[in-house]
Specification:
Structural class of chain A: alpha/beta
Radius of gyration of chain B: 33 Å
Oligomer: heterodimer
Number of strands of chain B: 12
Largest interface: A-B, 29 and 21 residues
Strand order of the largest sheet of chain A: 7-8-9-4-10-11
Number of strands of chain A: 11
Order of helices and strands of chain A: EEEEHEEHEHHHEHEHEEH
Radius of gyration of chain A: 18 Å
Shape of chain B: elongated
Strand content of chain A: 15-25%
Number of helices of chain B: 13
Chain lengths: 258, 400
């Protein structure tokens, strides 16, 4: 099994709280210590090639977890190893480097840069990484090809449908070949057909070995994942493995049995 | 190249809000153009003064009385006798010509045209050379005219234009204060210095003017021409010596007359125009500053408006420096374009005459105004840009 490889993500005893003292709100707390009731923090390992769905109702702390996993926010306590690097205490400059190299984001509200063509959107993370123009173009076109939007490369966000915009966002997320694709409610704003399209793309990416973490509250999305975590009140209450890490994601496995 | 990318993002950002960008640029444009133009106007007027220094002749001295200026001791007025003493003194080699001058005002009539010349001057023919006045048409009046108190006059070109328009003035009769004068000559125009018009005069023999207007008492001034420009200092001391004699003064500090050279008068005037230039420049600099504040204002609005975009860029791994660079480039682009257009506007504007002054562009002011505008863009853009760069991505992304 993948036990020989270190996990892509290892968080141990991570907490996140807002405010101080008695009025502190623990967005992430993990289980309470027996006796004292002190939060012990959330611990979680995600292996390379896994497809994890994090589920929970609003207020369960899943967005906080996503922000910490995505290095958009720093935990109050605990350690976070991403691809072997301790990112818990990096400064803003190094964090931006980590976000650029190791993480590909897909947001619920697409978050494309306005007035910018699909091609330029996808080139953007490469531009920040300092990749040369010709190489950038080649890789960006390849990423767009992968999400089936090569013919829409010159279109701006306002000329694309929601589903197409989300596919551009997926292409942008994977163009840097990140260690992890982090999707926050990627289908939250999409109709059922676009949802199916985007999920199929994510399935294919995972089948080709990319680690995927999806934050969602839809069971339909969770059905695509190999492992489903359920968060309640800032703690993981349920951890179900639906398919092996090495195999294809369940949705693809159903279609093409191995 | 990352720099090229930043410029492209910045241009994109500016084009997205065309009207706003144009208005912000207009602020800088007006600032830069006014600095260039107003300094050019100031410079133009001092150039004009410099030109008139040479046209007035540098070796002319003017002696005027302190009488009636409230001095402690009763000052004696200057008289024709003083002038005669100056002209006839054997030791005063430095004095070439002497001309006593009386000045008055009056209304000149020709036919049914009535006009008030700037001044009516009664003097000797030596005045023409001393004051560097040359006739264009006709002739000067002569010493003979002075001795016989003939009613003849030489008029300035402005006066000629006002009274005669296109007619030929020489030989015509004009009436000033009831006395008829025959015009014998018209002076060559000297051109205005912007403050008064040296061409708006009527010059007549001294006794004629005294007889008709001022009476045979004192004279207003005595014009002295030194033998050469170098001899003016010597001439000044000669004049002081002779007049102290005629006025019976022993202490030079109690002299009841003043000697000024045209040069010193004009130097004083030039320093006035310098002050004027500095004031104009200061006003213009303030408008440039206001333009700079306009940039800060607009950039702050832009940063707030694009907080979400900044968040996206940060999530994609944009380093702080790139965000800072993008917004700084945007503000600098605003100021550079504004300043460029301002330079063009200033240079075009300086081709027109403004309140009677030909503006003369100072090349340093063009470079200076452009440079300062660009610096202002960088300086006033740095606060909004650093605000954008230090936004936390998580908060920027949540911004609606």
């Amino acid at each position: 099994m993948a036990a020989t490889k270190p996990p892509v993500i290892r968080i141990s005893r991570v907490t996140k709280s807002y405010g101080q003292g008695d009025s502190a709100v623990h967005a992430l707390r993990g289980p309470s210590a027996p006796g004292t009731g002190e939060p012990l923090g959330v611990s979680l390992d995600i292996e390379e090639g896994d497809y994890v769905a994090v589920m929970g109702s609003s207020g369960s702390g899943k967005s906080t977890l996503m922000n910490i996993l995505g290095c958009l926010d720093v935990p109050t306590s605990g350690r976070y190893l991403l691809d072997g690097t301790d990112v818990g205490h990096l400064d803003e400059g190094r964090l931006s480097l980590v976000r650029n190299r190791k993480i590909g984001f897909v947001f619920q509200s697409f978050n494309l840069v306005p007035r910018t063509t699909a091609l330029a959107q996808v080139e953007l993370p490469l531009a920040y990484a300092g990749v040369r123009s010709a190489e950038r173009r080649r890789r960006a076109l390849a990423a767009l090809e992968l999400v089936g939007l090569a013919d829409r490369a010159g279109h701006k966000p306002n000329e694309l449908s929601g589903g197409q915009q989300q596919r551009v966002a997926v292409a942008r997320a994977l163009v840097t070949a990140p260690a992890m694709l982090l999707a926050d409610e990627p289908t939250g704003n999409l109709d059922s057909r676009s949802t199916a399209e985007v999920l199929a793309i994510i399935d294919r990416l995972n089948a080709s070995g990319r680690t995927v973490v999806v934050i969602t509250h839809e069971d339909e999305v969770a059905l695509h994942a190999k492992r489903v975590l359920r968060l309640v009140d800032g703690a993981i209450v349920d951890d179900v493995r639906r398919a092996p890490v090495d195999g294809p994601p369940p949705a693809l496995a159903a279609e093409v049995p191995v | 190249m990352i720099l090229w990318q930043m410029i492209r993002f910045a241009v994109g950002g500016l084009v997205a809000n065309k009207v706003r960008s144009a208005l912000t640029m207009l602020g800088v444009l007006i600032g830069v153009a006014s600095v260039i133009l107003l300094l050019a106007v100031g410079n133009g007027s001092s150039e004009a003064v410099k030109a008139s220094i040479t046209s007035l002749g540098t070796n002319a001295l003017t002696v005027s009385s302190n009488a009636g200026r409230g001095s402690a001791t009763a000052a004696k007025a200057l008289t024709v006798a003083d002038a005669k003493a100056l002209a006839t003194d054997a030791d005063a080699k430095s004095i070439k010509w002497v001309a006593p001058v009386v000045t008055t005002t009056g209304t000149a009539l020709y036919g049914n045209i009535s006009y008030q010349p700037g001044s009516i001057v009664g003097t000797y023919p030596a005045y023409f050379e001393t004051a560097n006045q040359k006739v264009r048409d006709g002739d000067y009046f002569s010493n003979d005219d002075v001795l016989n108190s003939r009613k003849v006059a030489v008029i300035g070109s402005t006066t000629a234009k006002q009274l005669f328009d296109t007619e030929e003035p020489v030989g015509k009769r004009i009436t000033i204060g009831g006395t008829p004068f025959t015009v014998v000559g018209v002076l060559t125009a000297k051109g205005s210095t912007g403050f008064n018009d040296p061409d708006d005069v009527v010059i007549a023999p001294l006794p004629t003017v005294q007889n008709a207007f001022t009476g045979f008492g004192s004279v207003n001034q005595i014009m002295v021409q030194a033998a050469s420009a170098e001899a003016t200092t010597e001439a000044q001391s000669d004049i002081t010596r002779i007049l102290m004699g005629t006025h019976a003064i022993t202490d030079a500090t109690k002299a009841d007359f003043r000697i000024s050279s045209q040069t010193s008068l004009l130097t004083a005037r030039e320093s006035t125009t310098k002050t004027f230039t500095v004031l104009l420049g200061a006003v213009a600099a303030i408008s440039l500053l206001v333009g700079g504040i306009g940039i800060t204002n607009i950039m702050l609005v832009t940063v707030t408006e694009r907080t979400r975009e900044i968040g996206i860029r940060k999530a994609l791994g944009a380093p702080r420096g790139v965000i800072l660079g993008q917004f700084l480039t945007e503000s600098t682009l605003l100021s550079v374009t504004g300043a460029g257009l301002g330079v063009a506007a200033g240079l075009i504007g300086s081709h027109f005459t403004i309140v009677g002054i030909e503006p003369v562009v100072i090349p340093e002011s063009v470079l200076g105004a452009f440079g300062i505008a660009v610096a202002i863009g960088l300086f006033f853009g740095s606060y909004p840009a650093s605000r954008a760069a230090s936004l936390r991505p998580i908060e920027a992304l949540r911004h609606e």
